[in-house]
Amino acid sequence: MLHVTLLLDITVALHLLSLTLALKSFGNSISCRNEKNEPIDWFIIYKLPKYTMDSDGSGLNYMYLDGSMKNWDLSPFTINSSSGAAGHTLGQLYQGKGYKSNSTAYLFYNDAPPELPYDMDHGHTKGVIMFDKYQGFWLSHSVPHFPPFPERGYDYPSTGLFYGQFLFCVTYSYEQFHPISEQLMYSNPRVYNCSLPPPLWADMPLLAQLCSGVSPHLPRDRSVKKLVSAKGETLLSFVKTHLFVDDIYTSWVAQLLDSDLLAETWQRPGHELFSNCSLRRHVLNVSGIRLPGPFYFHSRYDHSKWCVSLKPQDRWVCLGDLNRERGQAWRDGGLVCTQNTLIYAVFRRAIYSFFKC
Question: What does pTM read for this prediction?
């Protein structure tokens, strides 16, 4: 009996030690950072448009959400401040001089990069990845000309003030950057700044190709992969190439998720795709957004790209790159989807109105 008790005590002690080391690694390694500059598993920023139905703003205010909260919170910071969640997260690269580190990899991509011309030859996709041999973050967003080159320090472009925008950050273990790299290859990103230390070149060949500007042969016109965050959140990454000429929401994501979707994306007048009920699963366009405050604004003032399940029991939320408009059918890009209950609830409540078929 004493022997069994001792074994149990040793097992519990080893488990606690393992958990302590994992938490210590999470805190010390590269990760998404919250408004207090603490490491977290994920956050979402919803930048408000400059003009809402009830007021005129600066175009710099934003709503903030992470897993510790129950609803959106109007941040006391502005999106151009290095003291907010985006500033703290990217500050690991800027203020921390992470871009000079021989052990840190990073990649900036944007089809409208800062200081460079707009690029129609690459995917309609924007984001940053940064990681070391333990973990890192993937920050996807919808902001043209953002973020600045590493040497410039953190800032937010004046061109990103007028419309609503989103930033979605997830912390991942090192191993997850292998499937993330593959998904990025399918999205054909316009890489405008990249660093991959020599020790990682052999282990991250796809990122090495992206950094070198190489476009490899892809076996399919689309790819879907399961990703798992550092703290166990399951996500699905959908990516299509320009060879898959169709609306990603209607023809693929809604059908594969087996869920009718409400989609909030910017649609240029004359180029829009209307709500679609032609397939088994429907996609309906959101027309109005309501966030706590209250802040009301029309979808034509919002450059965010997201969708939610129409039925609460399906509970899907996807954030990503592509708009529901004709020209986007020919662009590379994707969506990252989750069934996180909190994320679904706040985005579903944000829908003020939508167009039926």
Answer: 0.91
